[in-house]
Description:
It is a single chain. The protein has 12 helices and 19 strands. The chain has helices at 5-8, 15-18, 40-51, 66-82, 89-102, 114-123, 155-158, 180-187, 240-253, 271-281, 323-334, 406-416; strands at 110-112, 128-131, 134-139, 144-150, 166-170, 173-174, 194-201, 204-211, 213-216, 220-225, 228-233, 259-262, 285-292, 297-302, 312-316, 338-341, 349-355, 361-371, 386-387. Helix 9 runs parallel beside helix 10 (271-281) and helix 10 packs parallel to helix 11 (323-334).
Amino acid sequence: xxxxxxxxxxxxxxxxxxxxxxxxxxxxxxxxxxxxxxxxxxxxxxxxxxxxxxxxxxxxxxxxxxxxxxxxxxxxxxxxxxxxxxxxxxxxxxxxxxxxxxxxxxxxxxxxxxxxxxxxxxxxxxxxxxxxxxxxxxxxxxxxxxxxxxxxxxxxxxxxxxxxxxxxxxxxxxxxxxxxxxxxxxxxxxxxxxxxxxxxxxxxxxxxxxxxxxxxxxxxxxxxxxxxxxxxxxxxxxxxxxxxxxxxxxxxxxxxxxxxxxxxxxxxxxxxxxxxxxxxxxxxxxxxxxxxxxxxxxxxxxxxxxxxxxxxxxxxxxxxxxxxxxxxxxxxxxxxxxxxxxxxxxxxxxxxxxxxxxxxxxxxxxxxxxxxxxxxxxxxxxxxxxxxxxxxxxxxxxxxxxxxxxxxxxxxxxxxx
Length: 417
C-alpha cells in the first residue's frame, strides 16, 4: 500500500517471503517441527550417495572430514554388497536429509519432502482450512503439543479446550519430538470427521472427541469499554494487517480515549505484517534487529507518517509468542505505550525455508531477533511494564469475564488515569 512504501523499503527484497514464518501452523501459522529419525545405516548410505564423486577414488566434501567420508563409504559398501532387497535411492536421500536435520534436535528446524513442501505452500494460499481451530507449538517440558490459542467459535472452543492445554495423544499416536509434526497434521483431516485427543490440564487428564470443520481465520475482534477501544488480536495470520487497519480506523472514528490491544494467548505469525501494524502506532524508530549466524544485522524501522496520539496498552501473558513479543517489545521500547500482564513465551528465532533443487525444503532456524533495547527474545520473553497475575484457574482461559480480568482492569485503569 502506498502509505507504507517508505516502511517497506527498509526491508530486504526477500524479507517478506523469508519471514512468512509460521506459527504453529504455528504462527497456522508459528511460529513446529521434528520428524522421525531414520535408521543410522540408511542415513549414512544416503549421505554417501549425495557426496560421492562419480569417477574418482578420492572423495571430497566441503562439510565432512576425510575420516567422516570414510565412515560413510564403509557403511555404503555394506549396504551395497549385503542388503538383500531392492531400495529407492531418492527415498533414501530424503531420509538422509531428514536424519541430518533431526540430529540438530531443534523443534523449529525440520525437513519436508517435495510432496509435503508443495502442500505447505498451497495451505498458505488462503485463510481457510479444515481442522478444529487451535494454534499449537511443541512443549519441550512435557514432550506434548501445547495449545497457545483457541479460535472463537471453533470446534475446539465448543469442546472446552483452553490455551495451555497439553495434547499428549492424537487418535492412537503418542506425541513426542519425533512425532510432533505428524501429530499436528493428524489433528487436521476431512471435513465432518472427528479426532480424539488426550489432553493434560493441570492435574487432570481429559479425553475429547472433536468434529473437524472448515476454519476461516478470524483474527481480530473489537469492542468499546468505557470510551476505550479494545482490540483482540488472536494471531498475526493471513490478512491480519488489513483486518487490524479496518478495526483500528473504526474505533478512532468513534473518538475513543485510548486503545487496549490484547495479545494474550497469541502465538504469533507473519513478522512483516506485524511491523506494518506497528507502523500505524509508533513514531519513527528502530523497532527490531535481526542477526544471522555470520553476525550480519538487519535493522527494521517504522516511519514518521503516522502514530497514535492517545494512550496505548498492550496485554500479554505466558502464551504470547513470536510476533506478539515483537509487537509488545516495540511498543514498550518506543515509550508510546505500556505492556501489562505477565512475561511472554520467549520465541525469538526466524526460520527460512530453503528449497532443495525440486526435492523438498528445509525450514531452518537462521537468525534471531533482538528488541531495539537489546533484549534477546528467545528463551527470555518480554517483561511487562506492569506485572499483573491472574488467578491460577483463569491463566489459560481464552475468554475471561471482565469483572474477573485483573489484567484488562489494570489496562483500563492506566488509560483512565
